[in-house]
Design goal:
This protein has about 525 residues and is α/β, with parallel strands linked by helices. Among the domains are: about 15-110, Beta Barrel (OB fold (Dihydrolipoamide Acetyltransferase, E2P)); about 120-130 and about 145-275, 3-Layer(aba) Sandwich (Rossmann fold); about 280-310; about 450-513, no CATH class. It contains 15 helices and 14 strands. The protein has helices at about 5-10, 15-30, 70-75, 110-130, 155-170, 185-200, 230-235, 255-260, 265-275, 275-310, 315-355, 360-400, 405-450, 450-455, 470-475; strands at about 35-45, 50-55, 60-65, 85-95, 100-110, 145-150, 170-175, 210-215, 240-245, 260, 460-465, 465-470, 480-485, 490-495. Strands 1-2-3-5-4 form a five-stranded mixed β-barrel. The protein has a five-stranded parallel β-sheet with strand order 7-6-8-9-10, sandwiched between helices. Strand 11 (about 460-465) and strand 12 (about 465-470) form a beta hairpin. The radius of gyration is 63 Å and the shape is extended. One of its GO terms (cellular component) is cytoplasm. It is found in: Cytoplasm. Belongs to the XseA family. Heterooligomer composed of large and small subunits.
Length: about 525
């Protein structure tokens, strides 16, 4: 048996798979911590996580790349398959699959040629879907009540639009502020178009009748947000007619092809949106004058025709001459016609009366009597059967009728009547007792408050000539006095006296005067 010397193998260190993968990862990230790669975008994958996975390739090699969700959202130009780009990032490894990849921090088209190639490709795709078709273009409203403007609120574009609208025909304007360049341009413009379309008519914020998407001039990169597919599809799906006014007259973007009307400048968009108010007023005034002249000429022509036709019409007397003559002739012929009609009626009556003989009437009466007798003979048995049926039905119902429930109901009602009578009597007695006690109380109160109780305390009532005397002068002028005490009345002779009467002695208990 041969012995193998493994001393050399024993000095070689052993690595686990994870340790070796980590060492490779550190070496690659250390050597290629910042790289820029130029290549063509191959496969592009966008899972629900928001990350973007892609391949960068040339004619001989392929390298995998990844854009994390936050980095992908910041990119102005999203990578598409077939697009030549320059990617900036760092190399790293993915130990789970023993592969290396580039983590991209920034990706942009490789020059204007790449941008234009991507634009042409996107344009061909949208055109193949029919978004550029002329039959999809809708006419603009002649005089919109509300105009929605999608643009930057701080630029000169919105001022130019408002100024032009104010000069031509003032309208209500709703402004949706958006970024007009950069990574946020495309999604903000798309959301603005969709937001205007989502407004309801007659709501707190009214829905515009016309939309204007506007931006000033700039480079291809500055205007690239309006070449994005999301903006083009939002403009094509808009239910509100849309005018695109992006850049100068020589600038062309995808939104220009899908919009209902393209304006070379934002100012031209305002001119397309509304007519000139003064020109419109002048046109309406001209139309009114033309209509007045046309109506006057038409009335003049019709009046002349009416006068010409009236001269050809006969006079009223001539129209009535013929009917008057026919009326006279018919009036003369009417008595003779009545006489002949009466004679014909008499002749017809004589002929009919000749055929009416007593025998015929007797025969007719006999036939009617026979018919009546037959019907009477059939009627009596039918009436008898009906009476018998009704009697049997009445007998069956009489068998079901019993006097016991009626008698029981009578007893119950008698008991209720007796109870009500008793309650009525008790109530009447209680009411009479209450009234009697109230009357006694009132009587006592009357006696207590009456003047007779006062008389019993020693006072008196003096009357003169039937009236109560309350003053000395009234007593002197009275012809007779009557004093009423508690136990009776005393009459005194009275009259005026020349001497002054003696001062009467006051009673111990006082007097009532």
């Amino acid at each position: 048996m041969d012995l193998i010397d493994d001393g050399a193998e024993g000095n070689t260190p052993e690595f686990s798979v994870s340790e070796l993968s980590g060492a490779v990862k550190r070496v690659i990230e250390g050597e290629f911590g910042f790289v820029r790669v130029r290549g063509e975008v191959g496969r592009v994958s966008r899972p629900r996580s928001g990350h973007v996975y892609l391949d960068l390739k040339d004619d001989r090699s392929v390298i995998s790349g990844i854009l994390w969700k936050g980095v992908a959202a910041r990119q102005q130009n999203q990578p598409e398959e077939g697009m030549e780009v320059i990617a900036t990032g760092r190399l790293t490894t993915f130990p789970g699959q023993s592969k290396y990849q580039i983590v991209i921090e920034e990706i942009r088209p490789a020059g204007a040629g790449a941008l234009m190639a991507m634009l042409e490709k996107r344009k061909a795709m949208l055109q193949a879907e029919g978004l550029f078709a002329a039959d999809r273009k809708r006419p603009l409203p002649y005089l919109p009540e509300i105009i929605g403007v999608v643009t930057s609120p701080s630029g000169a574009v919105i001022r130019d639009i408002l100024h032009r609208l104010r000069d031509r025909f003032p309208r209500k304007v709703l402004i949706w502020p958006v970024a007009v360049q950069g990574a946020g341009c495309a999604p903000q413009v798309a959301r603005a178009i969709e937001g205007f379309n989502g407004l309801s008519r007659g709501g707190a914020l009214p829905r515009p009748d016309l939309l204007i998407v506007a931006r000033g001039g700039g480079s291809v990169e500055d205007l690239w947000g309006f070449n994005e597919e999301v903006v083009a599809r939002a403009a094509a799906a808009s239910d509100i007619p849309l005018i695109s006014a992006v850049g100068h007259e020589t600038d062309t973007t995808l939104i220009d092809f899908v919009s209902d009307r393209r304006a070379p400048t934002p100012t031209a968009a305002a001119e397309l949106a509304v007519p000139v108010r003064m020109e419109l007023i002048g046109t309406v005034r001209d139309f009114g004058l033309r209509m007045d002249r046309a109506m006057s000429q038409r009335l003049e022509v019709r009046g002349q025709r009416l006068r010409d036709m009236s001269r050809a019409l006969p006079r009223v007397d001539e129209l009535l001459d013929g009917p008057r003559q026919r009326l006279d002739i018919m009036g003369e012929r009417l008595p003779q016609a009545l006489t002949r009609s009466v004679d014909r009626r008499k002749l017809a009556l004589s002929e009919i009366a000749g055929s009416l003989r007593p025998a015929v009437l007797t025969r007719a009466m006999t036939v009617e009597q026979r018919r009546l007798s037959e019907r009477a003979a059939r009627l009596k048995p039918a009436l008898d059967r009906l009476v018998q049926t009704r009697r049997e039905a009445l007998g069956r119902r009489a068998d079901r009728i019993s006097a016991r429930p009626i008698l029981r109901e009578i007893e119950v009602q008698k008991t209720r009547l007796a109870d009500l009578t008793r309650r009525l009597a008790d109530g009447q007695e209680a009411r009479q007792a209450d009234l009697r006690s109230r009357l006694d109380a009132l009587t006592r109160l009357h006696e207590t408050l009456g003047y007779r109780e006062t008389l019993r305390r020693g006072y008196a009532v003096v009357r003169g000539d039937g009236h109560v005397v309350t003053t000395k002068s009234a007593a002197e002028t009275a012809t007779g006095l009557e004093i009423e005490f508690a136990d009776g009345k005393l009459k005194l002779g009275g009259g005026s006296s020349s001497r002054k009467p003696a001062k009467p002695k006051l009673p111990e208990q006082g007097s009532l005067f």
